[in-house]
Amino acid sequence: MDTANNPYQPIDCNYYDRLEAWATMRTICQIIFRDEEGKEQDVTARIEDVYALNKVEYMRMDNGLVIRLDSLLSVNNIPLPDHC
After folding, report:
1. Which of 20, 34, 39, 65 lies deepest, with the highest CB count within 10 Å?
2. Burial group, residue 33, by CB count within 10 angstroms (0-12, 13-18, 19+)
């Protein structure tokens, strides 16, 4: 998925709340997502912030990585639902 050229697809609202809870609890998370070239990536880090910028939602990790939320596949073995 080339996220740079695809319109943002909002993620499930309950899943967004779960991401915020993990950030608040400073939980170390296993995150699987597709990078800008469409390759599956697997990282383990803490979520520092979940935010929106220009109507696109992102999360910033404690290692500096920023992930567009609609590129998520799963966090802590919980798959991302299809839509909000």
Report:
1. 34
2. buried
